[in-house]
Amino acid sequence: xRFTVPIILLCLLLVIGGCLGQSSSSRSSMTPEEAAIxxxxxxAADALDKAMQLYHDGEFLEPDAAFEYLDExxxxxxxxxTARYQxxxxxxxxxxxxxxxADVEAVIKVKxxxxxxxxxxxxxxxxxxxxxxxxxxxxxxxxxxxxxAEVYVQRGFCYASLDRMDDAIYDFSQALAINPAHRDANYHxxxxxxxxGDYKAALYDLTQALTLDSQSYEIIMARAATSMKLKxxxxxxxxxxxAIVIEPNxxxxxxxxxxxxxxxxxxxxxxxAVKKALLLSRAENNPEMAATYQxxxxxxxxxxxxxxxxxx
Length: 312
What we know:
This protein has helices at 4-28, 32-52, 63-76, 81-93, 97-110, 115-127, 131-144, 149-161, 165-178, 183-195, 199-212, 217-229, 233-246, 251-264, 267-283, 287-301, and strands at residues 55-56, 59-60. The protein has a two-stranded antiparallel sheet with strand order 1-2. 77% of the residues lie in helices and 1% in strands. It has a domain at 249-303.
């Protein structure tokens, strides 16, 4: 029994020695090339970490410095997905679309199921007018995660641009089911309904969009155009007046206001509005538009004067 403890210790030493020997052997078996690669990967990770330390609340506080760190990281390790993706976003924001696309595609090549990279590539392709390619990327994202309203909106915009209005309306509706207060989903679904001639549905969506963004010139004008189609001239006049407050020097707005006022029966107001359009077009030295407004004005001037209101 007196030899039991030393024997156990001897066995433990042999086991530990064997493990240490294996570890040492493993390290010594690394080739110089492998050691260099490991060092480069470590340096790349360090450069990426420095870049991401500048990232707060969805943006880089010092974009130029971050860009340099990301460049360094990618040069050291071209397969570093996070560095590639972040550099792509910086490149796109700088207007370097082709370079951004190259980085995003490199990310997808390394990691085909990178959802953010597919969304970003879709957005880049959309900005270049490749709506078919963009829709494919957005579809891939939806296939992985169907809870992101913005992806439906972007794919819906692609479908609308491809004149696939029913598909676009479906996507905008899916986005609104996720987020009823999505301004662009309401606005673009309204435009899609307009394209299909469903002006009542369009008016509803555009009104919803306007409650979410009351100073949007584009929404105001779209709703005014829809109201004109529905012959709701009072509402159209109200929207044209709101648009004029935002863009007071747009001659076309006064001509449209005149058309709306004529629809309400206010010929005097229509004449006044079109005269303003005519003056602005002449000041802009735009004879073509001036001729159009003159025809509109002549049409209103030729109308019989409204009968005087009976005295009470």
